[in-house]
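To: structure desk
From: M.T.
Subject: fold request, one chain
Message: Could you run this one when you get a chance? Sequence is below, nothing fancy, just the single chain.
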Amino acid sequence: MQYTQKSIHAYLLLLPAFVFLVGFTHYPAVATFFDSFMSTPRAGRAGLFVGMDNYQVMLEDPVFWKSVLNNLWFALATIPASIGLSIGMALWVNERIAGRDFLRTAFFLPTVLPMIAVANIWIFFYTPGYGLINQILQAFGFASQNWLGDPHLVLGSVIVVAIWKEAGFFMIFYLAALQALSPSCKEAAQIEGASAWYFFRRIQWPLLMPTTIFVLVNALINAFRMVDHIIVMTKGGPDNASSLILFYLYEVGFKFWDQGYASVLTVVLLVILAAVGLLQFFILDRRTHYQ
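Reply: Done. Structure tokens follow.
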């Protein structure tokens, strides 16, 4: 009887979280999946079952494939760069150096800024003619560039913003992991005469692998769900050169009001994020030693 009461009490404590999880995660995902097989409802007309028509439209949509390609380049550029930069910053501010607290705050500051504010700051940096970056280029004799208006430069420009925003956030996890390592490891390496690079490659990096997996999965998810700075800085242009999957989904759903097609794009995005989670659980976690 006492065991039953404890079980009921435990389930009651879990009930609010369960309701929110089902109501705001599982139910919308299932409803979106069914909506992807329906046409967009109009005034006075409910949505009709159209089968795979919406998916066929997606496969024949050049803007969708452009957004997918952009997103792949975005992920390939931001993930290794932000992780590598965060490791470097964590290693630096983990040492006993002058101004360490200031450096930690400076590196982490972009993380606490809203993405809308960050995007507006970088718009000023990228402004043709009198923006900060162009002012520096002109001071050294280089020509001014239209960073957000050139199809060949715009994706790289928003990638830089994403790296600047994310690296400080990932640095906190690496810094915490470095501080959790036993000081005896470094002392033993110094006694053996190991170089700093050898110590990092052979000792620190393997011990940081659980943190790296956590950061990698978060970086992968972030690469496919970023939309704020695209809306503010480029609106996907010019000529869809900076359009990402989530931004295109936003346009289809809230600008063109095509609910059926937006549901298809949502399903694709959910499949990508689910694949990232499965990659972590079945492959990365099983290849990592946590002890």
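Reply (cont.): The chain has one domain: 59-287. Let me know if you need anything else for the meeting.
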